Amino acid sequence: MDTPDLEIQLKTLPSQPGVYQYYDKEGTILYVGKAKNLKKRVSSYFTKTHDNGKTRVLVKKIASIKHIVVETETDALLLENNLIKKHMPRYNVMLKDDKSYPWICIKKERFPRVFSTRRIFKDGSTYFGPYTSMKTVSTLLDLIKGLYPLRTCNYHLSQEKIENGKYKVCLEYHLGNCKGACEGLETEQEYHNNVKAIKEILKGNFKDSLTRFKMQMKQLAENMLFEEAQKIKEKIEVLENYQAKSTIVNPKISNVDVFSIMSDESYGYVNFLQLSYGSIIRSHTLEVKKKLDETDLQLLELAIIEIRQRFNSNSKEIYVPFKVDLGNDVKVTVPKLGDKKHILDLSLRNAKYYRMERFKQDKIVDPDRHANRIMAQMKADLRLSSEPRHIECFDNSNIQGTNPVAACVVFKNGKPSKKDYRHFNIKTVEGPDDFASMEEVVYRRYKRLVEEQKPLPQLIIIDGGKGQLSSALKSLDALNLRGKIAIIGIAKRLEELFYPNDPIPLYLDKKSETLKIIQQLRNEAHRFGIEHHRNKRSKSALNTELETITGIGDKTVVELLKHFKSAKRVANAKLDELEAVVGVSRAEKVYNYYHNK
């Protein structure tokens, strides 16, 4: 399908955290950015007047937008970093120049220092990064500082100088932030064990540090050193809390393709995430039109081959929601839990959002396709023999049996057809009898349609349970229409759908579009019926009040209400105002009635 206009893409973006990518008309990636709320952030580019000339030029060049939805801002930050390093977009100037972005340096020294820097020197030191935010670097350094005491001084700690007592411990030692390597109070081996653990944390491997701390805590507790054990426990909690925040990067998941699928009656939506060295470097969703009744398995197998060829992927392993047959060259994994399952769920979420956006776009640019899809979905969900292009819904309204009325609302192609709505005043039923009222209304409605040779609906919905449905069926039987029109009842309490001669109700998914349309029909019938009931009740009350006045007839009542708009204003009117409308004699009768009362 052709890419929708920018304006439509903007309207249908999700309000979730994620990463957005701007492309020009040639399909070249221009810019990658992250957002707490994708819809707000991306829309701001097109609604604000930008002072920065570079941003103005960028906005003019944007032809299409892609995005990846993630769970948290931290995920968005990591993913943005991966994509920028992978694609090097023209307008992400800062990330292309690695010197301008922060790194974490482990200095090549006898007792290495760990610090942030924006400059890289080829002196044998180890650098981690670049990071897209100094805040991320500060958080990591605070984490490391809290877990492992390291020196912050810049002394040259050679063995000779330490043995000669050239240095003295500083305040950091007395605060417990350093173990005093400058006076030989910490061995080089101990220090390097800590540095090794820090490197693993920066790579995303928290397991070794957690194991080490738990062993220390257990030993301290066994030796009755509970205060020291509590301090180690706090470090474990800090480490576990930080680990839980990072879900995008997992060094153990390397060079893998992830595929998931969402489908409806007409289309399948296959999302592809490409992972390299534990990082997501690409996301793409392919829309596949069903030609026949292909299964999700068939669609997914076709899409995987197409996507892997398109992106020239040679990954030896793929993650999918169910087993697929791709030959012996590719390992197929169906994750059930852990990080692998989490990444598969992330792929599925992106497929769902893509599908939702397509629905919104179709509503705007291709309403026919939207209607066709809804009708096909309703036919399948409600087990109908034909698509319910024409639906009618009935509802009764009465309060303590007074002024009983009923409403019939009509939907065509999933949308209200208000010109076809009808009100009914109940004529043959005395008192509050919903079942008999429903029987009368359904009979009158379809007797008239048959006599006038007008088209009958494909589906009738009765607002009520088994009782109202049975009453409506009696009328269809009397008109010989049973079996020619599908009919169901919807019970208010649990949204149960009842079918003729079936004691077990049908429950639809609470988020399904079919149930939403049925609820919309029911609510519209209720609103339309209540509106008519209120009008009838108030009109009855007004007429009763004015018509009880001796010597005042219907014509006088109409004249008074036309002029004063309400019975209350008539009651409060002055004598001369009444005379101007209905003459002296009748004015006096009305005036005296209200004022004597």
UniProtKB/TrEMBL annotation:
Q: Which InterPro entries match?
A: GIY-YIG_endonuc, GIY-YIG_endonuc_sf, GIY-YIG_UvrC_Cho, RuvA_2-like, UVR_dom_sf, UvrABC_protein_C, UvrC, UvrC_RNase_H_dom
Listed name of the protein: UvrABC system protein C
Q: Quote the subcellular location field of this record.
A: Cytoplasm
Its subunit composition reads: Interacts with UvrB in an incision complex.
Q: Which UniProt keywords apply?
A: Cytoplasm, DNA damage, DNA excision, DNA repair, Excision nuclease, SOS response
Source organism superkingdom: Bacteria
From what organism does this protein derive?
Answer: Flavivirga algicola
Q: In the UniProt record, what gene is named as encoding this protein?
A: uvrC
Q: What is the lineage of its organism?
A: Bacteria, Pseudomonadati, Bacteroidota, Flavobacteriia, Flavobacteriales
Q: Which residues form the GIY-YIG domain?
A: 15-93
Q: What does this protein do?
A: The UvrABC repair system catalyzes the recognition and processing of DNA lesions. UvrC both incises the 5' and 3' sides of the lesion. The N-terminal half is responsible for the 3' incision and the C-terminal half is responsible for the 5' incision.
Q: What sequence ranges are listed for the domain UvrC family homology region profile? A: 262-476
UniProt record similarity statement: Belongs to the UvrC family.
Give one Pfam hit by family name: GIY-YIG
- Name the PROSITE patterns on file: GIY_YIG, UVRC
